[in-house]
Design brief:
It contains nine helices and four strands, in the order H-E-E-H-H-E-E-H-H-H-H-H-H. The protein is mainly alpha-helical. A two-stranded antiparallel ribbon has the order 1-2. Strands 3-4 form a two-stranded antiparallel sheet. It is globular and about 60 Å long.
Length: 244
């Protein structure tokens, strides 16, 4: 999960209609699911971190600090499950890039750092909350070709795209235009964390990725050399932030 800074609310009070927060959220966080990192051009929902469907969180329905953005899959998996900040690692308050390993087979697992800090149970709970622990779904077309409809398969596809871009860059002479093209490709395809892992050997590309995805540099979870900073500085000073 890409760590982000949402910043102060653009309105003086709570939103009377929470859907009106969508343009402000997209402007600050980008048009991506805050959990699975997919680009969502339509039907990107204003996500209530603590669900408005639970009576104890009804008063947070229009609260800016309770908003992220979510795709239909992550949103439906999360549903009205109770969210206790102390028990989860969330992208608006923790360094969620440092919390997870993204693997070539499309799976996500708690990172070595979370295990070392004994936060792996919280990392796993976060994956289960959003359904990011689920295995790939076999969805062949009429010719038996696998179609990437689920999030795992889509991560695998983006890994291949990112690897091809890295190979092109490695095999070329230093080419600033190619670097710019790779960033445009990453913005279009989403999955920030996969691009960061594939370009782990290239601090310049990682720094460009951090700057390209809205709200990421502002999270203060990366230094100027694109190294992760943990625990997260939690610049918005959110409850139970900075666990990793």
């Amino acid at each position: 999960m890409r760590p982000v800074k949402r910043g102060n609310s653009p309105v003086p009070d709570d939103y009377t209609d929470y859907t009106k927060a969508q343009p402000d959220l997209v402007s600050r966080l980008g048009q991506y699911c805050s959990y699975c990192e997919r680009p969502i051009s339509t039907q990107l929902a204003v996500e209530h971190i603590q669900p408005k469907g639970l009576p104890k969180y009804e008063h947070l329905e229009g609260r800016w600090n309770n908003f992220l953005l979510a795709c239909v899959n992550c949103n439906s998996n999360k549903s009205d499950k109770d969210v206790l900040f102390a028990n989860l690692l969330l992208p608006d308050r923790d360094n969620t890039f440092a919390a997870f390993n993204y693997l070539q087979d499309g799976t996500i697992e708690p990172s070595e750092l979370t295990i070392k800090k004994k936060l792996d149970a919280k990392a796993q709970a976060t994956l289960e909350l959003t359904g990011l622990h689920k295995a790939a779904v076999y969805t062949p077309d009429v010719n038996g070709k696998q179609v990437a409809l689920d999030r795992v398969s889509q991560r695998m596809n983006i890994w291949l795209i990112a690897e091809e871009a890295r190979t092109d860059l490695d095999n070329s002479r230093e080419n600033q235009l190619l670097r710019k093209w790779i960033i445009k490709n990453a913005i279009a395809n989403g999955f920030f964390s996969i691009w960061m892992v594939v370009f782990s050997h290239d601090p310049d590309m990682r720094s460009r990725l951090i700057d390209a995805f809205p709200g990421t540099r502002d999270s203060e979870c990366f230094d100027q050399n694109s190294n992760t900073i943990s625990p997260a500085p939690n610049p918005d000073q959110l409850d139970h932030g900075g666990k990793i």
